[in-house]
Amino acid sequence: MSEPAYAEAVSAHYTAGDLGEKILAGLRDLGKDPDTLQVDDLTQIDQFHWNGAEATRALMGRAALESGMRVLDVGGGLGGSARLIAHEAGCSVTVLDLSEEFCRVGAMLTARVGLADRVTFQHGSALDMPFPDSAFDRVWMQHASMNIAAKERLFREVSRVLRPGGWLAMHEMMAGPVQPIHFPVPWAPDASISSLSSSADIQTLLTEIGFREVAWVDEREAALASMAEAAAAAPGQSGAVAPPLGVQLVIGPRIVEMLRNTGRNFREDRLTMVQAVFARG
Question: Does the pTM of the predicted model rise above 0.85?
C-alpha cells in the first residue's frame, strides 16, 4: 500500500462522519448540558486508550510536566489527554492528528470546556510534522504508533520538534514475542493498517536516534486486568448495554469483537503495553 493510501485508510478507520452530533447527543442522554461542560464530562469518549484517564495521569507524572510547558500530542485524536494536561498541569498543548474529523470535533469540545486558549488542533501527518525545529518541551504519544509503519521517520520527526533536553512520553502498544496478532482490534480491522514493533526494537531505535531512556514500565499485567473488566462490561456481555459516550461512537459495533481479540492477544503474548519516557540528547 502506498503511503498516501495507507494514511487515507488509517484516517477512514477513525472517521464516523457525524461524531460531533453523536457525542453531543450522548452528553444530553447523560443529563449533561453541552453548553456548560467540564473536562471530566468527556472522559468516556475522549480517553481513547487502555486505562483511560488513570493512564494519562500516570504518564503525566512520569513526564514531569510543568505549567507553561509546550506539549505536542502526536495522534491525539479528540484531545482528551491534551485537555487533561492543559487543565491539570497548566501546559499549552497542540494536538496533531491524521483524522480531520477528530481535529474538528476535538476543537469543538475543547471550546465547550473553555480550553481553546491552551489546546489547539493541527490536521497532519506525524511523518511530516508542520512545526519548526525545537518547538516543544514534551512530545506525547498514547496509542498512536501502532498505526504508523515508518517508525524511524516518526521518531526522527519527534526528535526534530523537541528542544534539546526535551522529553518524549509514550503509552503504547508493542508486539509481543508471539506473532501475528488476532484481528480485528480497536486500531485496525486487519493487518493492512496495523504496524507493531517489539519493545526491544523501539528501545534500540530511540537510542540510535539519540534519545536517552528515562523510564520504561511494562504495563502488560495492568492491561490484562483492565481488559478483563472492559470485556465484562462490553455491550452484549451479560446484559451490558453500550454507554451513551462509549468508543462504539467512533469504531462502531465491532468494538466488542475488537476488545475480545485485544484481550486474547495479551493473554497469548502477542501484545504488550508500556509507559516510557525518553530524553532528547
Answer: yes
